[in-house]
Amino acid sequence: MNLTVSLILGSSILVAAVILAVRLGWLHPRFLPFVCLVFVGVIAEVFNSYMVLSGNANIIVINIYSLFEAGLIAWQFDRWGLFGKNKLVLPTILGIMILVWVSENFIWGSFSDFNSIFIVACAYPIVIASIAMINSLLSDDRQRLNRNPIFVICIAFIFYFTYTVLVETFWFYGFDESPVFAARIYNIFFYVNFLTNILYAVAALWIPRKPNYILPY
User: CA-to-CA distance for 170 and 189, rounded, in angstroms?
Assistant: First the structure.
């Protein structure tokens, strides 16, 4: 794929970031982790583009971003009430994430290698959690999927992280040894990322305003 095209597809996260920036003062606080996820994604994309254009490897950027991404998504599911009222679930999940990430990058492997184990270990639960969240929306008669940002974000998670698992699986089994096949797999990934960013932008438009509380005099 042409380098310019890949950078343009990657920078599509800016669409959602601009929408969120414009609406920032009115967004419902339940979506704060998603807002942070988009803005962190923009920062990561800036560093990623700089590293690629300067001819350097972007592995370190991806490894650092993967930790922030997984943590923010876990926080978002907690904000949506997926973990119930148990306050220990989120800290436990975050603790396990950090432990696996540190172990892979500094004990099992190297910080200059892709942390594939961590990515796959997080991708599976995110897909399952997204499906559970959608099932929760479907079982609630009061919830309408029409223009529902939670539904759109979960669909984006399922789409993106399912393909992520497939890519990492190909990597594990050595399919990357075929340059042509590997190039096609990663070219598709750019379009998957682009569609995910567009879904983020749609969800950003549909996030409700924060409630207005009328204080007594």
Answer: 13
How many residues can be counted in the chain? Answer: 217
| Separation in Å, CA 19 to CA 16, 72, 90, 116, 198 | 5, 19, 28, 32, 11
Q: For 116, what's the count of Cα atoms within 13 Å in the CB-facing half-sphere?
A: 13
> In the prediction, which pLDDT does 7 show?
80
The pLDDT tens digits of the residues spanning 91-122 come to: 999 999 999 999 999 998 888 888 889 999 99
Q: Encoding tokens for residue 187? A: 């070219």
Cβ-based neighbours of 66, under 8 Å, separated by 6 or more: 101, 115, 118, 119, 122
Nearest to residue 75, comparing CAs of 118, 129, 143, 147? 129
Side chain identity at residue 159, one-letter code: F
Question: Model pTM greater than 0.90?
Answer: yes
